[in-house]
């Protein structure tokens, strides 16, 4: 089809006209403004002539010795280049004529001054100053005329540009926008699979009419191909959807277990995802020392099971209850493999962290024993020798030695407690066994009944979390035995409804009067710092009889434990 009237050419011509009008109006304004750059200087110099004329009259009356200098300055101002440049064709004749009158009248006045005729000069200077005023007024009108010319040319240019732009917009809407909107509407019909779109009617013989006819022919061909391919795609889609669901679940589960540090909440999160994705009633992941669950089991439904194997060793099992149909075997087998590998890695990491922690604390204990303990023993020997050397009758010296002896005894006692603390071990990350091992020697040393009750869940803590919990419990028990004169102490662990860990140590002693520690004691401060490392809170409160220490912390710390 032949294009008789090109849309692009018409729009290009209109835009070229707009640009040309813009250049003309802008150029005229710039030329006018450039010629006005020194108008203020000209007006200022012309106005200064009035002041200089009166100053010359004053000099002539007073016979000032500065008369010659002021005459020279007046002549320089009158002959200034900016005033001489007014003699141009485009400057109004009134301004040029008034300037020439000033120049022609000045020699006569100058002669009067030079001859000493001050009175005659004063009589004629008023007329001369009036001529200066009219010259200044003419300069002002000339400057205002140029500003009016700039405004008028800019206004005419804007009106012409706006009119041409409106005409271009109207042409574009009729010849471009409407056909394009029709094409967009037709494309949306085709996007929705509907090839019966409204007809694309374009009156002008231009590019858009060619495009509309080509689009209609293409739509007719697409309709036939679309119907042929639709049936084939439908069959393939059903097969791929199921495979994609399985791969997506396996990939997301693997990413969740690999992207974050392994912990019980993460396993439960993955189980919940599998539960929702496969529409299961319940799914459990169980082993000898762990149990993770999602959903609500129904006794009326049967359990499907698959073992978790790691290097041919059974480390647990994955079991589930279905609502409708069983999930694909490939999915359950792959999930069992992923869970088995993750459980093995998780348990290995816990054991490795525990070994590192125990080794680090054993090293600190050895260093304390080999350095500080030996130093304290040496000081005790030296103190004994000092006691034997000092005169028995010197009571003040023996009192000081007694104070040193008590301080050394207290330091040695604190050091032994510190060494005992660092030598506490947690076998296989089992805090229950460690708590029982810590309570047993205390029970044997004192006549105090210590009761330990707990709920399942302590084994889900990390190694460093377990050490902090164990040390807080030990410090609370020692404080109750030493300072509260307690006869019965209850240690209770439970999980709250929000999933937080709650450890309470309650005694029936004298009760705590204040949480402020005396100088040189740091037990309560250390307990509070350990609670902060657990991202939890430590509350010490007096009861009706005795004191209760309550430690509450979330399963996972908000910041890395140190």
Report on the structure:
The protein is of the alpha+beta class. It has 3 domains: 7-182; 249-345, GAF domain (Beta-Lactamase), CATH 3.30.450; 425-562, Heat Shock Protein 90 (2-Layer Sandwich). Helices cover 66% and strands 11% of the residues. It contains 13 helices and 9 strands. The protein has helices at 7-35, 39-62, 67-78, 81-84, 93-114, 118-191, 207-259, 264-278, 329-389, 395-422, 431-445, 463-483, 523-533, and strands spanning 280-286, 291-295, 304-310, 313-322, 449-453, 488-495, 501-507, 537-542, 547-553. The strands form 2 sheets. The protein has a 5-stranded mixed sheet. A 4-stranded antiparallel sheet has the order 2-1-4-3, with helices on one face. A hairpin with a 5-residue loop joins strand 6 (488-495) and strand 7 (501-507). Helix 12 packs antiparallel against helix 13 (523-533). The radius of gyration is 52 Å and the shape is flat. The two termini are 80 Å apart.
N-to-C series of helices and strands: HHHHHHHHEEEEHHHEHEEHEE
Rounded average pLDDT: 77
Radius of gyration: 52 Å
Total domain modules: 3
Strand neighbour order, sheet with most strands: 5-6-7-9-8
Helix tally equals: 13
**Major β-sheet profile:** 5 strands, mixed
Helix proportion = 55-70%
Distance between the termini: 80 Å
State the total count of DSSP E strands.
9
Strand fraction band? 5-15%
Judged by helices, strands and strand pairing, the structural class is: alpha+beta
Shape: flat
Quaternary state of the chains: single chain
pLDDT below 50 for ≥5 consecutive residues: which ranges? 558-562
């Amino acid at each position: 089809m032949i294009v008789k009237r090109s849309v692009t050419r018409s729009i290009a011509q209109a835009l070229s006209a707009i640009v040309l009008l813009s250049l003309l109006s802008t150029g005229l304004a710039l030329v006018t403004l450039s010629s006005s750059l020194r108008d203020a200087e000209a007006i200022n110099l012309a106005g200064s002539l009035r002041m200089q004329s009166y100053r010359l009259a004053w000099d002539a009356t007073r016979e000032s010795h500065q008369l010659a200098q002021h005459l020279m300055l007046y002549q320089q101002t009158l002959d200034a280049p900016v005033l001489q440049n007014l003699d141009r064709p485009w400057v109004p004749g009134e301004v040029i004529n008034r300037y020439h009158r000033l120049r022609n009248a000045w020699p006569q006045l100058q002669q009067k001054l030079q001859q000493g005729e001050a009175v005659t000069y004063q009589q004629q200077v008023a007329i001369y100053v009036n001529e200066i005023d009219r010259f200044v007024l003419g300069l002002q009108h000339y400057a205002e005329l140029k500003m009016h010319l700039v405004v008028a040319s800019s206004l005419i240019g804007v009106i012409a540009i706006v009119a041409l732009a409106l005409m271009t917009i109207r042409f574009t809407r009729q010849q471009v926008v409407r056909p394009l909107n029709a094409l967009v509407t037709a494309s949306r019909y085709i996007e929705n699979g509907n090839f019966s779109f409204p007809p694309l009617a374009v009156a002008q013989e231009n590019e858009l009419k060619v495009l509309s006819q080509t689009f209609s022919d293409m739509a007719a061909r697409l309709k036939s191909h679309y119907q042929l391919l639709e049936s084939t795609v439908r069959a393939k889609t059903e097969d791929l959807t199921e495979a994609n669901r399985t791969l997506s679940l396996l990939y997301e589960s693997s990413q969740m277990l690999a992207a974050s540090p392994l912990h019980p909440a993460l396993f439960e999160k993955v189980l919940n995802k599998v539960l929702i994705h496969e529409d299961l009633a319940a799914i459990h992941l169980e082993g000898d020392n762990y149990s993770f669950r999602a959903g609500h089991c129904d006794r009326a439904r049967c359990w499907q099971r698959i073992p978790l194997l790691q290097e041919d060793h059974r480390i647990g099992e994955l079991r589930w209850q279905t609502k409708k149909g069983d999930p694909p075997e490939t999915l359950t087998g792959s999930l069992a493999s992923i869970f088995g590998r993750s459980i093995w890695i998780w348990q290995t990491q816990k054991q490795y962290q525990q070994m590192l922690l125990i080794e680090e604390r054993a090293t600190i204990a050895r260093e304390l024993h080999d350095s500080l303990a030996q130093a304290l023993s040496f000081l005790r020997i030296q103190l004994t020798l000092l006691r034997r050397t000092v005169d028995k009758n010197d009571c003040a010296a023996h009192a000081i030695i007694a104070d040193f002896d008590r301080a050394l005894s207290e330091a040695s006692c604190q050091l032994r407690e510190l060494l005992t603390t660092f030598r506490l071990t947690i076998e296989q990350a089992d805090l229950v066994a460690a708590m029982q091992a810590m309570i047993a020697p205390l029970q044997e040393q004192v006549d105090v009944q210590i009761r330990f009750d707990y709920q399942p869940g302590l084994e889900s803590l990390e190694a460093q979390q377990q050490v902090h919990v164990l040390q807080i419990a030990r410090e609370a028990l020692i404080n109750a035995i030493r300072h509260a004169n307690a006869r019965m102490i209850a240690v209770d662990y439970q999980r709250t409804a929000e999933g937080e860990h709650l450890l309470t140590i309650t005694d029936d002693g004298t009760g705590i009067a204040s949480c402020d520690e005396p100088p040189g004691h740091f037990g309560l401060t250390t307990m509070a710092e350990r609670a902060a490392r657990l991202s939890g809170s430590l509350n010490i409160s007096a009861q009706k009889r005795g004191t209760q220490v309550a430690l509450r912390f979330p399963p996972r710390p908000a910041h890395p434990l140190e």
